[in-house]
Specification:
The complex is a heterodimer of chains A (327) and B (361).
Chain A (H helix, E strand, L loop, with lengths): L14 H10 L7 H5 L4 H14 L8 H10 L17 H13 L3 H6 L4 H9 L19 H14 L7 H10 L17 H13 L8 H9 L18 H13 L8 H10 L8 E2 L6 E2 H13 L8 E2 L4 E2 H8 L2
Antiparallel strand pairs in A: 1-2, 3-4
Helix pairs in contact in A: 1-3, 3-5, 3-14, 5-8, 7-8, 8-10, 10-12, 12-14
Chain B lengths: L14 H26 L5 H13 L4 H15 L14 H28 L4 H17 L2 H21 L4 H15 L9 H14 L4 H18 L3 H21 L4 H15 L13 H21 L4 H17 L9 H11 L4 H11 L1
The chains are: A mainly alpha (327), B mainly alpha (361).
Chain lengths: 327, 361
């Protein structure tokens, strides 16, 4: 496989600008949007921290403040809300666990927070005992995103035994479609982001044997458009975040070579703001931390020089996942 | 934090604009603080409910505030009898009164979310909240009233899908609403025929609507089962579907949606699909006849279009399937020709064509 390089047509990766961009995110308190997006704060911290790791600047965020903030979002039931004063939800809980994993903070979760076991119980209680699926919170929405979040967090905490993994696996299988993809629930249309959640969940459960890898790989590889970027469903536009969902799924089933790597690298690099930092969904659009995370994750997976290798199942640095899982 | 389709601009604020924004922030945070401090007391009052109305109009993504609103509805607007379905309530007078007021409350809540949903059609939390409201209708209202709310909801979903034919939330929500309307809780019966007809309408409006093709593939087994279709009727049905998709391919051979649906039909013929088959009773010889006909039809497309990769990919795949049915080993007839075309027309997926060639050997 040829070494991935920055094409001469593209600007190189503007690492310094991206690091600076992530670090200034939490200073924009005089902008209304900062307050209007507080319901995503903990997810945002995960996206920002991930981007810094992939850009090989993991120490840029202060560890203690990071842990303090994460723990300040925890409820007595073990679950985490998006920010202090926000209700607990599985989506912010998985971000909390992933952040703590990245800053090696599980001991502090036990010492200063409610402890790993309580987090595990919060998540385990969200499993639907009949279907094996997971709810997002006490109000009962079900989606394969939540199932993935549960298996992701519980595996990092070493607490997968708290849930019925076999039932969860059966539920994922029931979300498979004739085109090889997966949807948000049984009967739902195949969608790249949901495919990532399903395939990564099966990978964590060690059940990739249940995936029709030929068919899925074929569908995923057709997501790449002439501009090099990947879309989320047939006949939709390309987007940096979908590029990650597709790419990581292809990596999990060992078929990244079914798409044009260099074209995707060029597309992602074309979505950066080389001066002020950050990545956008498509070239020329507003940057945000979400696309900055998945843009840099994509470049890392594609072997772009100087980047920290990413684990496609967790969207976290490979070496951290390996350390925690003892792989 | 995750913006889509917003052009990159450099934001320059005058000092006056900055101060105006800070004023807005203070107002927003003031409202937020009031909600939080009242919710922290655990008293979910009408006053708190009114505050959630204000905040959610500013920011419908604030999931915690939707939760606060639900708690307010449960504690001071909806009646307290919830566990028994409304239809079981024997005690006519107070029950009926509660039902009427519950009905009014739920209708007014549905109306509240309407403009928000139109403005933010991809916001998960609005869809979730509506779903919760409608489930409350089943628990609390007399059956005809509950059913009417759900029927109205199906009308709304159709409206949303007319505005955005591929809205993922709306299609998922449609399947959910239909499942509820079919359920015994709403004294329902199968709507598979109507929903199948709906996919026909959507496809006729736009052949590239894969969401509609997908839904169609799910409805077919139900429709055939309910029609009590025998083998002959099933064969006729399959022929009609094949005609429909082939007519589309004749004018739009680059349409991925059509090819995926064609692949679905072929998987039903050769029997390698996961789900129920349209024509379960086909003999191997019949399968071969069907498949050969499809291959001939697709080969005919080459007369008008010789530079569409999907045609070569279909020929390759279907001929390999034919080989398996005929129990022949080795590559399909023109394998190398098609692969050469595929490499030339679709170099982005070169690695895949290489793997396909390896496997076919």
């Amino acid at each position: 496989m040829a070494q991935a390089t920055a094409d001469t047509k593209s600007p190189g990766l503007a690492t310094d600008a991206h690091v600076k961009y992530v670090l200034t995110l939490d200073t924009k308190t005089d902008e209304l949007d900062y307050w209007m997006t507080e319901h995503l704060r903990l997810n945002g911290a995960y996206w920002g921290l991930c981007a810094l790791h992939f850009l090989s600047h993991p120490e840029a965020l202060p560890r203690k403040e990071t842990i303090d903030f994460v723990l300040s979002c925890q409820h007595d039931n073990g679950g985490f809300g998006a920010a202090p004063g926000h209700d607990a939800h599985i989506l912010s809980t998985v971000s909390a666990v992933q952040i703590l994993a990245m800053v090696d903070g599980f001991e502090e979760l036990d010492a200063r927070g409610k402890g790993k076991a309580v987090v595990g119980k919060f998540i385990a209680d969200l499993q639907n005992p009949d279907s094996g699926s997971f709810y997002g919170d006490e109000w009962g929405e079900e989606d394969t995103r939540f199932l993935y979040a549960a298996l992701n967090a519980l595996s990092l905490l070493g607490l997968l035994s708290l849930v019925d993994v076999d039932k969860a696996v059966s539920h994922v299988v029931s979300c498979a479609n004739f085109d090889g993809g997966y949807g948000a629930k049984p009967g739902a249309e195949s969608h790249s982001a949901q495919i990532f959640t399903c395939v990564a969940a099966l990978a964590i459960a060690g059940r990739l044997d249940l995936v029709d890898q030929e068919k899925l790989g074929r569908w995923l590889s057709e997501r790449q458009l002439p501009g090099g970027g990947l879309n989320g469903r047939p006949e939709k536009k390309e987007d940096v975040c979908y590029s990650w969902w597709v790419l990581s799924s292809l990596q999990i089933i060992d078929r990244v070579h079914w798409i044009d790597r260099q074209a995707l690298i060029d597309f992602i690099l074309g979505c950066q703001d080389p001066e002020k930092g950050g990545f956008s969904d498509r070239p020329g659009d507003m940057v945000d931390v979400w696309h900055t995370c998945f843009g840099s994750a994509g470049l890392s997976l594609l072997g772009y020089p100087g980047m920290e290798p990413v684990d496609p199942r967790y969207c976290m640095p490979k070496k951290i996942v390996a350390r925690i899982l003892g792989e | 934090m995750a913006s889509h389709n917003v052009a990159r601009t450099t934001r320059v604020r005058t000092e006056e604009q900055r101060l105006q924004e800070i004023e807005k922030i203070n107002k927003y945070r003031g409202l937020e603080d009031q909600i939080r401090s009242q919710a922290a007391l655990g008293t979910y009052t009408l006053q708190l409910y009114d505050l959630t109305t204000k905040l959610l109009r500013l920011n419908p993504e604030y999931y915690t505030v939707w939760n606060v609103r639900r708690r307010c509805l449960l504690s001071c607007l909806l009646s307290t009898t919830t566990d028994q379905p409304a239809s079981d309530t024997q005690d006519a007078t107070p029950g009926a009164k509660n039902q009427q007021s519950d009905g009014d409350v739920l209708q007014s809540e549905v109306a509240f979310t309407m403009p928000l949903l139109m403005e933010f059609p991809k916001c998960y939390w609005i869809w979730n909240f509506r779903q919760w409201l409608l489930s409350q209708a089943i628990l609390r209202l007399p059956l005809p009233a509950a059913r009417k709310i759900w029927e109205t909801e199906l009308g709304l979903v159709s409206k949303m899908l007319n505005r955005d034919q591929r809205n993922y939330h709306a299609w998922g929500y449609r399947r959910y609403v239909v499942a509820q309307l079919e359920s015994p809780e709403l004294d329902g019966k199968s709507m598979a025929e109507d929903e199948f007809a709906y996919t026909t309408t959507m496809i006729q409006a736009n052949l590239s609507n894969f969401s509609a093709w997908h839904n169609r593939s799910l409805l077919i087994p139900k429709v055939l089962e309910q029609r009590g279709s025998d083998d002959k009727a099933r064969a006729a049905f399959l022929a009609e579907e094949l005609d429909l998709v082939r007519d589309g391919l004749n004018v739009g051979p680059e349409d991925q949606s059509l090819w995926y649906y064609h692949q679905f039909l072929v998987s039903q013929i050769v029997g390698d699909g996961n789900g129920q088959s349209i024509t379960p009773a086909l003999t191997v010889d019949e399968k071969i006849t069907y498949l050969k006909r499809e291959i001939d039809e697709i080969t005919d497309l080459l007369e008008d279009y010789d530079d569409i990769k999907w045609i070569y990919e279909a020929l390759l795949e279907y001929n390999l399937a034919l080989n398996r049915l005929e129990d022949k080993s080795g590559g399909a007839g023109n394998l190398q020709t098609w692969l050469t075309k595929l490499r030339a027309l679709d170099p982005m997926r070169m690695g895949r064509w290489k793997d396909v060639e390896q496997q076919a050997k």
